[in-house]
Amino acid sequence: MTDYKISAKDVQVYYGDNHAIKDVNVDIEDKTVTAFIGPSGCGKSTFLRCLNRMNDTIDICRVQGDILLDGEDIYDPAVDPVQLRAKVGMVFQKPNPFPKSIYDNVAYGPKIHGLARTKAELDEIVEKSLRKAALWTEAKDRLHSPGTGLSGGQQQRLCIARAIATSPEVLLMDEPCSALDPIATAQVEELIDELRQSYSVVIVTHSMQQAARVSQKTAFFHLGNLVEFGETDKIFTNPEDPRTESYISGRIG
Amino acid sequence: MTDTPKFTSLKVQDPHTKNRNAAEKRFRSYGIIALAIGGLFLAALTFTILKSGLPAFTQYVMKLDVTLSQEQFDDAESQLLKTAVYRDIFVDNFAAQLDAQGVDVAYDAAALERMLGKVGGDIRAHYRENPNDIGVPTTFQLQLSSRVEGYFRGRVTRDTLVDSRFLEKADLDVVDVLRDAGLMTGRFNWAFLTGTDSGVDNPGGAGIGASVIGSFFMMLVVLFLSLPIGVAASIYLEEFAPKNRFTDLVEVNISNLAAVPSIVFGILGLSVFIQFMHLPQSAPLVGGLVLTLMTLPTIIISTRASLKSVPPSIRDAALGIGASKMQSVFHHVLPLAMPGILTGTIIGLAQALGETAPLLLIGMVGFVAREFPDGVAAGFLDPNSAMPAQIYTWAARADVGFYEKAWGGIIVLLVFLLLMNAIAIFLRKKFERRW
Question: Which residue of A has its CA nearest to B434?
Answer without folding.
Answer: A99
